[in-house]
Input
Amino acid sequence: MSKIDLKTESRRYRERYLEMPTIPLQSGITYGPVRSRRLGWSLGLNISPISYKFCSFNCVYCQYGGTTICTINTSDWREDFPALDDFEKALESALREHKDEEINNITFSGNGEPTLHPQFEELVDIAKKLQRKYFPEAKLGVLSNSSTVTMEKVRRALAKLDFRIMKLDTGGPETFRKINRPCPGVDYEAILNGLKSLENVTLQTMFIDGAISNIGEQEVSEWLERVGEIKPVKAQIYSLHRPTATTSLGEVSAEKLEEIAAQTEEATGVTVEVIIASSPYRRRYNEPYRK
Ligand code: SF4
Output
């Protein structure tokens, strides 16, 4: 299928199946600093296309709604990703603008999976240079969905960062396909092996309930087994706090998250942080930043 056909088809799919409005895509290369649930004051770096959602996953809970182009192969869309020069100018300008403010972290995240940028490693080098110049105390890191963790160039880039927060929502391929809805070519076992061989990794896991769930006894037990195999520095677990791509999902209570955390720590010895955020979309809990 040609590029235009794919885009048209994806748009039709989105119009037909997207069930509720989600939050708009980031419109620029930098955003914030925002008070993040996990990262304190974080300047966000969006290196994905801005006019449509490009990702290797189409997670049922995605705050940006359905993925327009779901692929791990960026070759047909290279021109839609920000160029190195534009990235450098935008980041330097943002760092100058906020130089008197508190920035704890500078984080590659944004509209989709940041490591899909064809020049992710070069962008990391630029960001590192500017972070050292303007915010030497801040940490530079990434929030990634882990789909590219086996790619050599991505692994080199990940190794240059101060932190790597990598997604693992499920303990097996079946729930992975239901929740993260990966594009063809993304393999659960390959991700698992990639994560196991990565140094100093932090895992991030979204627990959800409702029509699709990963909090059943078996799902949790499989997930914590994988955590034990990967042996991350820590795992961060949380639940919904924003509108999602699928309306039939439910938030997991803080009590249940605490229970999963305790069970995992006991079984694996890995520290588990329960992240509970206050948000305009959350009604049941309002603790700003916890544990
Ligand atoms: S990996 Fe992140 S950006 Fe991509 S669909 Fe999932 S939640 Fe959305």
